[in-house]
Amino acid sequence: MIQYLQVGKIVNTHGIKGEVKAIPLTDNPRRFNKLKWAYVSKEISNEMPKFDIVSVKHHKNFVILKFSGIDDMNAAEKLKEHFVIIDRKDAVKLPKDTFFICDLIGMNVFDTEEKKLGVLTDVLSTGSNDVYVVKSDNNKEILIPALKSVVKKVCFEDNKMVVDLPQGLIDDEV
Fold it and tell me: Which of 55, 72, 83, 90 has its CA 20 to 30 A from that of 13?
């Protein structure tokens, strides 16, 4: 599993005192309130700078962050297009049968008869339930509802998901 999680993307500065505006990459932006520090980098690596978080504010669909040592707009400007990254051990604990999207991407998806349907490439949030986007070997997309009645098994050790597809969800050409 991935050690680091991107929880936000810095898209702009906010004001003149070094605050940045970030798009949350989490389903619950209030999680930022509990963060004491974060890495800030364009990509995940072993040399990401670590910043203490001085303050967190919420404005519309954004999170306004103030990092220690970033005290003016010029310093904040240099953080644009960077990600706010946390260590997995500092992530919120998920309820049973829920997963981080980054852990599902790339997973091989099979039906209950062990026929490979494809590889999970994306997760769509629809409001009522998520939908898994699975790309088949012949490049067709299969949209699979992320429901307990459909997803029968998720095995990270084998990088495998088993689904019981509702009748008529896919044609036989997949």
Answer: 90
